[in-house]
Amino acid sequence: MRQLGGHVTTLTDRDMQLGRGETVGDTARVLSRYVDCIMLRTDRVWKLQELAQFATVPVINGLTEASHPCQLMADIMTFEEHRGPITGRRFAWLGDGNNVARSWVHAAVRFGFSLRLASPPSCQVPPELLEWAAREGGDVSLTPDPAEAVRGAAAVITDCFVSMSDDPGATATPPWRRIA
Fold first, then answer.
1. 63 strand-pairing partners
2. Which residues have CB under 8 Å from 77's CB, separation 6+?
3. Cα separation of 29 and 36, whole Å?
4. What is the DSSP letter of 20?
5. Of 33, 50, 54, 93, whose CB neighbour count within 10 A is largest?
């Protein structure tokens, strides 16, 4: 933002009354009087949706438990800077079906690349997301075998196995150890 001539103000939960005495809608209305754009990183997608509903300035999804589009765009930009266009390429995701994985599914559909997700059965992306990708004509598939997922991939992507306050006890031991 600074490189583009803008100014940034970072507000944490300690700096605002959001969630403790002030509604998300009130926060959106107040912030809209002071800024030209709001980027929100939050633990719940409903907070982002409510903020966008009441704000009079653009709201950017910086991160929610459901998606992480800014991380995804940075990943794609980095890949294209170093390896060229992503359209028509194959990518592999190894890890749980977290917010970053979900954003990769969205991107595969929108940018026209193939995505192979290898996730433990207890940690996969929601079936509804895969159904959406199929309806939209996306080339997205799920496999429990990481070796199968990475075969022919232009890049292998991963993230942490336990994300956004997930219960680490609920995550199965990943089968990735068999990859040398």
1. 41
2. none
3. 12
4. T
5. 93
Q: At residue 93, what are phi and psi to the nearest 5 degrees?
A: -110, 125
**Quick one: tokens of 40?**
């929100």
pTM, two decimals, is 0.83
Instruction: Report the alpha-carbon distance of residue 46 to residue 115 in Å, rounded.
Output: 27
Strands 139-143 and 155-158: unpaired
> From its phi and psi, is residue 99 left (phi > 0), alpha (psi between -120 and 50) or beta?
alpha
The CB density around residue 87, as the number of other CB atoms within 10 Å, is: 9
Give the pLDDT confidence of 123-178 residue by residue, as tens digits: 899 999 999 999 999 999 999 899 999 999 999 999 875 554 555 444 444 444 33
Interval 74-96: pLDDT, tens: 999 999 999 999 999 999 999 99
CA gap 77, 71 in Å, rounded: 10
For the segment 2-39, what is each residue's pLDDT rounded down to a tens digit?
Answer: 898 989 989 887 888 776 778 899 999 999 999 999 99
Three-class SS state of 63: strand
